[in-house]
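[DERIVE STRUCTURE TOKENS]
===
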Amino acid sequence: MDAHPMSARARLTGFAVIVVLLAGLVVWAGRTTWRGMHQLASSFTAVESDAFHLSDYIEASIRDLHDTVLRFDSRKEPSVRARFVGKSQELKKWLRAHEAPLYTALEGDLMKQIEVAFDIYLLQGIALMDERAQSATIPRADTVLERAENNAAPILELCEKLTAAERIALTQFLKDSHESLRWLQQLLFALLLLLLGLGAVVGLSVYRELLAPLRSQLRQSRAVIERHEKLASLGTLAAGVAHEIRNPLTAINVRIHSLKRGLIQGSSEYEDATVIDGEIRRLEGIVREFLQFARPSEPKFVTVSADSLLAKVKRLLAGQLEKDFIELTLEAPPEIWIRADPPQIEQALINLVQNAAESIGSKGKICLRARCDTTRLAGRARPVVVLEVSDTGKGIPPDVQKRLFDPFFTTKEDGTGLGLSIAARIVEQQGGALRFKTELKKGTTFGIVLPRPEPETDEPTT
């Protein structure tokens, strides 16, 4: 029998939650990757804009200003002094503009020191030029050069430190960039795997939720159609054969009874007649089964409690089973109701209990059970009532399971192979299904699965 399935709504909800979570992970990974790429692009832009070569520009600018001071000393032209002041102001603005986009704190600290030292250098340079402009004497050239170099020395020393700091920062930047690239590659690879996983989950879910049930329903429908066609053909044949056998069988039965009245009890002739009489009765039973299989009566539906129906079956069979030390138990809550034809369901249950007893042989247990469930019936999930017959017998071999409900298939020496076929047909006529689960050397459970009555039909009508 089917295990208790999760409802379609619950499965779809779980599937939607999984898809949302996976989509969220994909979005997060994509956003993180985008940010990393943007940050890496900004870093490379910084490299392209000479962010790690500020000291070279400052040193070149200072040396240019130094040359301007020396030219002013030789010419004493006001325009040279103005050029010195103008270039100094441009360099000062440039220094302030490049304080922020620095890779390390050490570079920033050195840039601030350079800016302070440059203010001092600017004042010293202007003072030197003003002093030379007002002086009437001509000093030695090396004296002016020495003073100009002394003024520029603190800045150039700081530039050397900045150059070393930039070299360290560039090395660290390249290392961090390689690590970022490696991390982004791994993230992109993980994102690709995640997308593939999401696609696989979606595909598998679509297959399980849509395609697999359709294929299963198609196989079941095809099997049901083939089985009904086979049953119709066999039913017509069985009805014809049963009618043809019944008339001569009745005549033989009458003549045997006449012959027995004329025979002496205990004689060999009387014993032979008794054996013939028993075989005729067995043939009559087979004919009745044939007719019942060929022309099953239409069910008369009433609402009854499952426990009362199972209790009746227990009363009918418990005494017979006790002879073989088989215990027949009942587990059925009184509030479970079914809408069915009670005599026909009783007949199916009796057949299942007798089969269970034959599987056990002697010393075992059979349990009659009723429970509510939700399972697929008639192609859709719906609430049902399951009437179970569970035994501790030998179980059913796999090769027998395939043909278990085939008409005239039997593993018994004196069986007709119609018991389970008739039981299955009875249940199907009442909108249900006969299912089973089995395990070798542990037992078998047959379940009559019937639609649960609608609320307005829950009250008993019997």
In short: The radius of gyration is 51 Å. Residues 2-6 have pLDDT under 50 and may be disordered. The first strand starts at residue 302 and ends at 305. DSSP finds ten helices and seven strands in the chain.
